[in-house]
Please model this.
Amino acid sequence: MPKIVDWEERRNLVLAATWRVIARDGLTRATIRSIAAEAGLSSGIIQHYFEDKSDILSSALLLSHSRIGERMVRASAGLKGLEAIRAIMLEAMPLEEAQLLEAQIEVSFWGHVLDNPALRGILRTEYDTFWERLSDELDNAAAMGELKPDVDTAQVVRHLIVIVDGLSADRVLYPVKVEPEQQVELLDAYLESIARDRALRE
Amino acid sequence: MPKIVDWEERRNLVLAATWRVIARDGLTRATIRSIAAEAGLSSGIIQHYFEDKSDILSSALLLSHSRIGERMVRASAGLKGLEAIRAIMLEAMPLEEAQLLEAQIEVSFWGHVLDNPALRGILRTEYDTFWERLSDELDNAAAMGELKPDVDTAQVVRHLIVIVDGLSADRVLYPVKVEPEQQVELLDAYLESIARDRALRE
Amino acid sequence: MPKIVDWEERRNLVLAATWRVIARDGLTRATIRSIAAEAGLSSGIIQHYFEDKSDILSSALLLSHSRIGERMVRASAGLKGLEAIRAIMLEAMPLEEAQLLEAQIEVSFWGHVLDNPALRGILRTEYDTFWERLSDELDNAAAMGELKPDVDTAQVVRHLIVIVDGLSADRVLYPVKVEPEQQVELLDAYLESIARDRALRE
Amino acid sequence: MPKIVDWEERRNLVLAATWRVIARDGLTRATIRSIAAEAGLSSGIIQHYFEDKSDILSSALLLSHSRIGERMVRASAGLKGLEAIRAIMLEAMPLEEAQLLEAQIEVSFWGHVLDNPALRGILRTEYDTFWERLSDELDNAAAMGELKPDVDTAQVVRHLIVIVDGLSADRVLYPVKVEPEQQVELLDAYLESIARDRALRE
DNA sequence: CATGAATGAGTGTTCATTCAT
DNA sequence: TATGAATGAACACTCATTCAT
Model:
């Protein structure tokens, strides 16, 4: 009988190590050796669980996104319209420590999209998924009469994603300039600007 | 002093080549050799004009920023308040081809800030410069009564920079999702949301 | 003793898989993993049946030779002199598909004799065995008066082995240049050149 | 002004080192590092003169062949027919030390043809070149009436190449079995078997 | 008996950097 | 000033081998 290992757990161990290395040292220094060392493994073992380095990086990115997605679902459970959008946005924005790490990973990958066309495809799919999620709830908000009458919903979704991506970049690059409370204020100010008077939370 | 002009010219030649290589192949593939080849120079000569590779990259980033800064000055000459802000923003946003190249360079560098602490310092200084520029004009706008009474100007500046950075990221990563007209609409919608009624351009 | 039969069977299973991998992908790509996969076994189990990789390869070569030897015995049963030599040669030459596979294995190993001194010893023993086999029958042929009077039998044996090895190389490297019929013609022309007139097959 | 080097000489230096490593340690151990060390260079420099490892090996093989070809031309200058063929064959056969090295290289490459399809193409072209060379002179011999009337010249060329390749293999694998004199005797016996009586050398 | 997880040395390759010319 | 030859460290990746299960 072979040594029993939980394949998925093992992969996640490596991917979490990958996240830490990227966030600490940058994607360039996220070598197979440094990832393996961070995970407490030898460099060779990584090829048991991943095709190649590109597979590690893609998987790390996708797992990060899937964790965020799960959090969004949990956070917006039972909510609808603008409240759901707010909950979703708060999970995507780099507020807490854990989300800062996600932002660092995200921004690091952006810088390699020009090198790595495969990455570009992944990010685009993820963009569409996020767009869909926001768009659906914005339609709900419109149906519920939460929005000002002349609001262009596609433009709002676009702006919301710009906010998430801009905040992610700025939080990583200039941490003190976008503290959590400031991020929330920024979001709320924007949501208020599209909401029908008295529509939002009071 | 023609020497100095030549020297500066030579540096700029190399830096423009660096931009092209980064935008085309990504920062990872922007090697000294590829930059030299793009500039039509031998790889060795680059050490006469730059300390090391990191110096090339930093200089390329700074030159790009200084070009953008010059454009902002030109574009906002004679304007004040929200109109000046709009002009400044339009130079920072990735609208035309030239600005797309700048955005590609910018986003590529973001992904290497974690690798390269020197870059982080540069970007932060640049952030502060941009903040100052927007903040000054926003104060003008307030003084001119262009803003809604309860507007938090620091928050607006923060949001404006988030818009620039978010649009830069999204334009590089998902070009068709943020076409130039959509960018301008997004900006104008935001400016309108902070402007006193009838304050903006009609 | 069924155990031993199983063990031998298992080894032969692995060795046949080794042949197939070598013939298909080359000796360089005949890794323990690829051999195990081809045999439908796990890579670890191979160490139960073989010392190490070198043992697998040596054994594969020896088994191939022993199969050829058996075929020679069967083919030359009841024959003597030049007819026996012809029968033996036809088994050693790369005529049919099965013998082409043997030639591919053989030639692949030649290219690794310089890497692997153990192989050299094996091949030399095999050479002597083959020499002996041909030499004995050539002595018979001489005793039977089948040879021209001035024939140097050692030289003939040497030439016969050169033919086998040269044809093996050429059949592997340039298949269309040494088709089976051409090989047989070549052999027959040579045998005729050493045979007393009217001694051979009419 | 750059350091002046003779590119061709530098390449040949590396290729000669490659030959020595292959002949001494085998193709498998002919690593870029070992070749560089044998040539007295650092491993990195090799990429200045060669595309990649495959380019080194191909070039080494082709240079070896081209040297042999040159020797054949020199050795057969002024000769015609069977005498030219004999001179050509004596250059291709592994008689002297230098030719033994060539044979070791040759046989080593044979063992990697199944791994490396590019190699196969090279060897086939070389085969055709050799065939042509022998075939032309054999036609001369026929025209000069040196051959027995019923000789099949294509079959003879095939046999001559089989002799060269078989001797190369055997000389590398079983050196004492095919000493130089024995090789020459073998060749002469074969040539005599295809020559009209009294046609050859007296 | 058998598995496959794990190791670590070795490979080809790339590259910033140095330096003789 | 300028070249490009040369170095050596770092990288992703492969693999025979070991060993806990």
In short: Residues 1-4, 31-33, 43-44, 47, 52-53 of chain A lie near DNA strand F (CB under 10 Å from a C1').
